[in-house]
TrEMBL record, chain A:
Entries under Pfam families matching the protein: CarbopepD_reg_2, Plug
Main location: membrane
Membrane topology, from the record: Multi-pass membrane protein
PANTHER family, sorted: HEMOGLOBIN AND HEMOGLOBIN-HAPTOGLOBIN-BINDING PROTEIN 1-RELATED (PTHR30069:SF29), TONB-DEPENDENT OUTER MEMBRANE RECEPTOR (PTHR30069)
Gene3D superfamilies in the cross-refs: Carboxypeptidase-like, regulatory domain, TonB-dependent receptor, beta-barrel domain, TonB-dependent receptor, plug domain
Protein name: TonB-linked outer membrane protein, SusC/RagA family
Entries under InterPro entries matching the protein: Beta-barrel_TonB_sf, CarboxyPept-like_regulatory, Plug_dom, Plug_dom_sf, TonB-dep_OMP_SusC/RagA, TonB-dep_OMP_SusC/RagA_CS, TonB-dep_rcpt-like
Lineage: Bacteria, Pseudomonadati, Bacteroidota, Flavobacteriia, Flavobacteriales
Keyword Membrane annotated: yes
UniProtKB/TrEMBL annotation, chain B:
Organism: Flavobacterium xinjiangense
InterPro entries xref list: SusD-like_2 (IPR041662), TPR-like_helical_dom_sf (IPR011990)
Name this polypeptide is given: Starch-binding associating with outer membrane
Pfam families assigned: SusD-like_2
Lineage summary: Bacteria, Pseudomonadati, Bacteroidota, Flavobacteriia, Flavobacteriales
UniProt xrefs under Gene3D superfamilies: 1.25.40.390
Length: 1023, 512
């Protein structure tokens, strides 16, 4: 650690040792309407000096004394070269809307900026503006609907939860399948801290909640293996490159203040039957014990308004309580503020920002907060040297992350289930006179009194995080440059959860404490070469080396039974246990890349990376990851009709890896068992997994073809990609006989295939002086297939729901993550088989759906009229399914409207029994529907298709004239909203995006926090 | 300018090179600092001893739920062994846990302790323990993985083949013989890490020969000649001489599960229910002790709900009943289930009760049988009397919360229940078998093996509706279900050579 700091310091210090004979050029880059272009790249020709314009299009750049040529480019505009005389210091560059995307610059792997036309593979791009409009706490969730082929799903836990971002389908049966995130060239940690499962648990968030969207300039998505090949063993799931905002020179100190305040409300509430109330077999509860035991049973009498003894022990009218969800959940609020200072002179520019987010969740006492301190410092002390430093310090914390899925500790589940005549507010405050969990549910100790869960069950976590990088680029001459870079992501994580005294299922309580420190540093050196030969051949190549070092150390404490009740600290626990964990590993890499261009119309790009792993057996510890890609600008090679402005073909192939085996997995180790035996230590082998010294990262190859075209002077653009991605050597658990002494070992045998199409259409249907309409449509279709799981296993269950009657399964020949559920029992001729009482019987497990939607779509519209701007994002997913436990329980508990049928007169049934004898009876509705639900659980596998009005922002830019001579340079006020409307959904009672798990086991809903709609105001002021 | 160039180059790239070039520690990084790579074998040996009689999980299932209920030491509404019903998880538990605990640790020990003359005692003791673990496995299931087993890491054998019980017995006896002969008091041993004998080589030798006696006698039906040979060899080698030679593992109430008695802990946790549980002392067991005025009854039995351990008021729960059908049984009273006897929580059911793994009394009964069969020249009655006497005396390990059996009581019992020197062979074997069955209380696995071999004492099988044996005593347990999936080929071969994987299939030594 000291070594890293020393090196960081060295690199930073060298920023100030600058000597130069340079001058600064400031200026503005604007479009034809004189509107500043944000994030345009301004490059000094022949030097590796460049800068990016700010949100007004201003820039400042160092150039050597004398004449200079600046190349200015921006996405969507034709790039332009501008000659600057020795006396010119301030210029204005007007860019024309691109007709050929000639100069568009894209950030690619290792932060290398390339002209888009060179690329032989698809790269998705998102502007920082689109992310900050979304104001999602988790950056991953903000990518939803933005990039074709990027499938985003969250968990039903509220805004502080994790996101699941899968690019072009899951590549591994056992890996996380989430991409590598790289911020300003530094790979960052995105560990999922915890996930709800069958028996409950909480989503404890991931690494993407640390970032302030106001600090982000752009995001590039490296989708395929050719695009991510330079990340070698980390490239299997694609790479998301995040570039933060930079400083700008001139104008003294620029100040930008952004404030956002939004409200969150429950988006969709349960719509149960409100005809019958609590009770059993058509009867109201007879006494308090009955009422409490039947707290979630709505099989009672018709609601008649009569006074009945209710679960709180008081008399209440026996009438419908339809607003339990509205009454239980608060209105959430999120307030975020960012203040950014930018400035600099001709040698140094900076941006410093402070960000703060305060979120109060819709669940009482739950929330999230974050403080960001961000610094970007760029210096060009002379014409040879460029220094870049980025640093972020983030303090973030969450309080009372909600427990999901099964009870106990899950407040949501109880609220869903309350009988139709019970008002959730009767259960306030959740404790009895002793401060113990109030018993409203009789003997159901695992059912959670919801207010006890929110008011007394506690957990909190806090993460302090430093992400920093420094780089120095030295241009030896026009052709050769050298670059060194050092970066670190250092995380300090604390977590505490408390099961309070008096919680019904564990009255003496308990607590867990986790402290974890981890970091990854990367040190990278690159030597680059670029030149043009014979006028037609361009070469742009580099070789480099990287060292990645990871270290993680933590302590976990857990214990049960508070010695003094209600005193919640670790020392007050009777039974304590503690554990220390540690892991350290390193990956060394050599890599190289060569782009060859011919006449700026044909390009071929080759990359290779060799990774050496400390965690693998020294005999077999390195792998080579190559790629080749090519692009051909056919619109420049052949004469196309005038309306066909631009045409490009591209092809790419790459080979990358994933899921590096953990540290220390090569040899069997031993640990003490317990605390000894009458003074003698006990030592035994660790674990039941046979260490496999030959395990390797799994392998992913993608081949992709695509074409980019634009028409009518770029008013319409079309980008289509076809890809075929194959995983081999996926890490699987081999079948091991327990008589070997072990029950598992990991081997490289699995195979998975993903094929798909991505389509991106963008256009400008209307454009007048005052009115512009930009529209974009993106769509990804991915067909996944589990080709092979292991030598013997044809199927593997990833997860099942609490009731054990719906399963997320990987099965050979099937798409990734199918949902299996039960069908009714049927006889040989396929007829339903009944019990003698007329109820249905459970039959076989059948494939009932897909947990992952193959289609994901986004439709963006940006309209501007004078000073008004309207941005609308509609997104959709199709083809997936979800198993809804809420609806299943709705039937089991008599809540679902479907259970109204036959309540008075029973349900006439005519069929056969197991022996083929006829059954002609009238079944009792309660028995019938309960068996109906349990029998065919595939009834509750719903299509999770949805179309949502995901994001709307309506803004007004106050004209300069209105601001007068004040120091204020610009003011924008916007109305913003997320999840405003569901335009299409087929799942009753819950939102189709109510999945409670973040991992590969997608498609189970149970007891999640309801999805919310948010709306509010965004204010942006520039001084 | 030239200087600057060098300066910046070294500042920028130099650091990276420094970092990337010092590659010495690269491989060392992967050495886990928080675990032993080379363990202290003494401590692994201690753990293996703790694992020898198994842990809570598998003992609850195999030993209590199946074996103890099948030999009618216990009666239960809920135990599968009470009704000869199959439960996947309960029947296979002992298989999986024995391999993944005891067999794994002892196999690792044999691969870790170098095979040098200095280590002869250590290796011999491990081999004896391993033989003990395997004989319990094979007696319960029949053909099992033996030669290939426990070698997932050391031999990369992921799917061990099943060996015939006959071949396993041959090797077990060879192992015991070699180990007993190799033990040498002049060589180093485990000392205080030996939780049984504190490193007493002579006692380990006696243990090995006593095990040889047990295993030799087990072949009495299937191969009497060989049985006689090994019984003779064992006696000549020197078996247990007194209760001081008993293999006893002491237990404590904590701090961890591993410290607690593995039979009593699950019973206390799940079955006792303050006397309201559905598992009780068996009627067969209580009746036997009551009918012979056995002074041990006050130590074994207690009505938990009242604390009464008066022998006369003890009442065993008959086997083969449910909470519904029991009400028709003459023993049922208004007091309900609470009135039936529980294992005594002051003595044998203490969480920290010692576990008698093998006793001198058992050895005496084996010798008595050998004498009856004419395989030993000793006096059967002497052996019998010794066995009964020491069986009563050995209960002092459970403490004196209940008055220990006095010498006067022993003498009175022997007067009232004398060895039938003039009886038929069958009557003698019945008498010996019955006494051994009492001695083996809470060692259901050994009691089940001996009951199958000898047929004594006479246990009337239950015939519960839907039972899997047609109302006959089960002859083995069904393998761990995971074997059908994870070791399919070898499993199929095993059932081809041994017979279907059912309770009714007899193991090799179990001849009708």
């Amino acid at each position: 650690m000291k070594r890293i700091l020393a090196v960081l310091g060295l690199v930073m210090l060298s920023c100030f040792g600058a000597i130069a004979q340079n001058r600064s050029i400031t200026g503005v880059v604007a479009d034809a309407e004189n509107k500043g272009i944000v994030s345009a790249t301004v490059k000094v020709k022949g030097k590796s000096i460049s800068t990016i314009t700010d949100s007004d299009g201003h820039f400042a750049v160092m150039v050597p004394s004398g004449k200079a040529t600046l190349t200015v480019s921006s996405i969507g505009f034709a790039s332009k070269s501008v000659d600057v005389t020795e006396n010119e210091n301030n210029i204005t560059v007007i860019l024309a809307i691109s007709t050929q995307e000639l100069g568009e610059v894209v950030v690619t792997s290792l932060g290398v900026k390339k002209q888009k036309r060179v690329l032989g593979y698809a790269v998705g791009q998102v502007k920082g503006d689109d992310l900050s409009k979304a104001k999602e706490i988790n950056l991953g969730n903000a990518l939803q609907g933005r990039v074709a082929g990027v499938n985003v799903s969250g968990t039903a836990t509220g805004p502080a939860g994790s996101s699941r971002v899968v690019i072009r389908g899951a590549t591994s049966a056992s890996g996380s399948n989430q991409p590598l995130y790289v911020v300003d060239g530094i790979p960052i940690d995105n560990t999922q801290q915890g996930n709800a499962g069958k028996w409950g648990g909480a989503d404890k968030g991931d690494g993407l909640s640390s970032f302030n969207p106001d600090d982000i300039a752009s995001v590039s998505v490296m989708k395929g293996s050719a695009a991510s090949a330079l990340y070698g063993y980390r490239g299997s799931n694609g790479v998301i490159l995040i570039t933060t905002k930079r400083g700008k020179s001139g104008h003294g100190i620029g100040v930008e203040y952004t404030s956002n305040y939004t409200f969150e409300k429950v988006f969709k509430t349960t719509d149960w039957q409100y005809v019958y109330g609590s009770g059993d077999r058509g009867q109201k509860p007879a006494n308090l014990a009955d009422a409490q035991d039947l707290y979630n049973y709505s099989w009672g009498a018709k609601l008649d308004g009569s006074q009945v003894l209710s679960i709180d022990g008081l008399m209440h009218p026996y009438s419908a309580q339809k607003d339990n969800m509205k009454n239980f959940y608060n209105n959430g609020t999120t307030n975020s503020n960012t203040i950014a200072l930018t400035g600099g002179d001709d040698k140094i520019n900076y941006r410093f920002s402070l960000g703060n987010v305060e979120n109060k969740a819709i669940l009482h006492n739950a929330g999230f907060n974050r403080k960001n301190f961000t610094l970007a410092l760029n210096a060009t002390p002379n014409d040879k040297i460029t220094l870049e430093t980025n640093a972020q310090y983030v303090i973030e914390g969450a309080t009372n992350r909600p427990f999901l899925s099964d009870s106990p500790k899950n407040a949501n589940l109880s609220v869903y289930q309350l009988a139709t005549n019970t008002d959730v507010r009767w259960l306030q405050p959740g404790v009895d006179a002793n401060g113990f969990e109030a018993n409203h549910f009789g003997g159901n100790i695992y059912s959670q009194t919801p207010y006890f869960a929110t008011n007394y069950v506690k957990n909190f976590d806090r993460r302090n995080r430093f992400i920093g990088s420094s780089s120095i680029t030295y241009n030896l001459n026009e052709n050769i440059y050298a670059k060194g870079k050092l970066g670190i992501d250092h995380i300090n994580y604390e977590y505490t959860d408390i099961e309070p005294t008096g919680i019904a299922y564990n009255p003496k309580g308990g607590m867990n404490v986790i402290q974890q420190t981890r970091y990854e540093y990367n040190a990278e050196g690159i030597l680059g070469y670029k030149n043009t030969f014979f006028g037609d051949f361009e070469v742009n190549a580099f070789v480099g080396a990287n060292r990645q070092h990871n270290r993680s150390k933590g302590i976990s404490l857990s214990g049960s039974e508070f010695i003094v009740p209600f005193q919640y600290f670790y020392g007050n626990l009777k039974n304590k246990s503690s554990n220390e964990n540690f892991a350290e590993s390193e990956v060394n890499s050599l890599f190289g890349s060569a782009d060859l261009g011919y006449k700026n119309l044909f390009f071929i790009s080759l990359t290779g990376r060799e990774d050496w792993f400390s965690t693998l057996s020294p005999k077999n510890n390195h792998t080579f990851y190559p790629s080749v890609s090519s692009s051909f600008i056919y619109s420049d090679a052949v004469k196309l009709p005038d309306w066909w402005s631009y045409g490009k073909l591209r092809a790419g192939w790459g080979n990358v890896g994933g899921a590096l085996p953990d540290a220390y997995a090569l040899v069997l180790t031993y640990n003490p068992v317990g605390q000894g035996y009458f003074g003698q230590p006990l030592v035994g082998t660790n674990g039941n997994t046979i260490p496999n010294g030959n395990l390797q990262p799994y392998n992913v190859r993608t081949i992709e073809f695509g074409t980019e075209n634009s028409f009518f002077k770029n008013r319409l653009s079309l980008d289509v990609t076809w890809y075929n991605k194959t995983t081999t050597n996926d890490i699987a658990d081999a079948n091991v006989s327990i008589s070997s002494g072990y029950n598992s070992t990991k081997i490289n045998v699995g195979e998975i295939s993903n094929k798909g199409i991505e389509l991106q259409i963008s256009g400008i249907p209307f454009k007048t002086d005052n009115f512009t309409w930009n529209t974009g449509f993106n769509m990804g279709y991915n067909e996944s297939k589990v080709v092979k799981l292991s030598d013997e296993l044809k199927s593997k269950t990833l997860a099942d729901n609490r009731d054990g009657n719906a399963f997320i399964v990987l099965e050979e020949g099937q798409p990734f993550g199918i949902i299996k559920a039960y069908d009714y029992e049927r006889n040989a001729s396929g007829a339903l088989v009944y019990n003698p009482d007329g109820t249905l019987r459970r039959g076989k497990l059948v494939t009932a759906g897909k947990g992952v939607a193959p289609y994901s779509l986004g439709f963006t519209n940006d309209l501007s009229y004078k000073s008004f701007r309207l941005s609308v994002l509609i997104d959709a997913k199709f083809g997936g399914d979800v198993f809804s436990s809420s609806n299943y329980l709705g039937y089991r508990l008599g809540l679902h409207k479907g259970t109204l049928e036959g309540r008075e007169d029973g349900i006439p049934v005519s069929g056969v029994d197991v022996n083929g004898a006829p059954v002609n009876v009238t079944a009792n509705a309660q028995d019938y529907w309960r068996a109906w639900a349990r029998g065919q659980t595939s009834n509750f596998v719903y299509s999770s298709d949805f179309i949502k009005l995901r994001s709307v922002s309506l803004g007004y830019d106050f004209p300069k004239s209105m601001l007068g001579k004040s120091h204020i340079e610009g003011v924008n006020i916007s109305f913003v909203a997320r999840n405003l409307l569901s335009l299409y959904s087929k799942v009753p009672n819950v939102d189709p995006e109510s999945n409670y798990q973040n991992g590969n086991e997608q498609g189970l809903e149970r007891g999640g926090v309801p999805v919310t709609r948010s709306f509010g105001v965004n204010l942006n002021v520039k001084f | 300018m030239k200087n600057n160039l060098i300066k910046y180059l070294s500042a920028g790239l130099g650091c990276i090179l420094v970092l990337t070039s010092c590659d010495n520690g690269f491989e060392d990084l992967n050495k886990n600092p928080n675990a032993y790579v080379t363990p202290d074998v003494n401590s692994v040996f201690s753990l293996s001893e703790v694992y020898m009689n198994g842990q809570d999980y598998e003992n609850h299932r195999a030993n209590l739920i199946y074996a103890s209920a099948m030999v009618q030491h216990l009666g239960s509404f809920a135990y599968s062994g009470d009704k000869y019903a199959y439960s996947t998880e309960w029947s296979g538990a002992f298989f999986g846990s024995t391999y993944s605990n005891g067999i794994k640790e002892t196999s690792q020990l044999l691969s870790t302790i170098p095979n040098t003359p200095e280590n002869v005692n250590k290796r011999s003791a491990v081999r004896i323990m391993k033989a003990y673990l395997f004989h319990r496995l094979t007696d319960l299931y029949g053909d099992i993985p033996y030669f290939d087993a426990g070698k997932g890491y050391t031999g990369l054998i992921l799917k061990p083949k099943y060996d015939k019980q006959q071949d396993i017995y041959t090797d077990l006896l060879k192992e015991l013989d070699e180990s007993a002969q190799a033990l040498d008091a002049s060589k180093p041993f485990f000392g205080s890490s030996d939780l049984f004998y504190s490193g007493d080589v002579a006692k380990w030798k006696k243990f090995s020969y006593s095990m040889m006696l047990r295993l030799g006698m087990r072949m009495s039906k299937v191969d009497p000649a060989k049985a006689q040979l090994w019984v003779g060899k064992a006696i000549a080698g020197g078996v247990f001489q007194s209760n001081a030679d008993n293999v006893v593992l002491n237990h404590a109430t904590g701090p961890d599960g591993v410290n607690r008695n593995p039979y009593t802990t699950p019973f206390l946790r799940e079955d006792l229910q303050e006397g309201n549980g559905s598992t009780k002392l068996g009627k067969t067991f209580v009746d036997q002790l009551q009918n012979t005025s056995d002074p041990r009854l006050r130590i074994y039995a207690r009505i938990e709900s009242t604390g009464d351990n008066t022998p006369a008021t003890q009442k065993g729960l008959p086997n083969g009943y449910t909470s519904g059908t029991i009400t028709a049984h003459p023993s049922w009273t208004a007091a309900g289930i609470k009135a039936y006897s529980d294992p005594n929580t002051l003595t044998i059911l203490r969480q920290d009760a010692p576990d008698i793994i093998m006793s001198y009394a058992e050895v005496q009964f084996l010798l008595a049988e050998a004498a009856v069969r004419g395989w030993d020249s000793g006096n059967a009655q002497t052996y019998y009397n010794n066995g009964v006497t020491t069986a009563m005396q050995m209960l002092t390990v459970y403490g004196n919360a209940v008055a220990p059996v006095s010498n006067v009581e022993v003498a009175a019992y022997l007067v009232a229940n004398p060895f039938m020197t003039l009886g038929t062979t069958a009557a003698k074997l019945n008498q010996i078998g019955t006494q051994k069955w009492i001695v083996l209380f809470f060692n259901g696995l050994e009691a089940f093996a001996e009951l199958r071999r000898t047929g004594y004492p006479t246990i009337i099988p239950v015939n519960f509706p839907g039972n899997l044996t047609g109302g006959t005593l089960p002859r083995r347990l069904i393998y761990d279900e995971t074997e059908r999936v994870n070791n399919t080929t070898n499993y199929n071969t095993a059932i081809t050579q041994q017979g279907t994987d059912e309770f009714t299939t007899r193991v090799w030594w179990d001849k009708p």
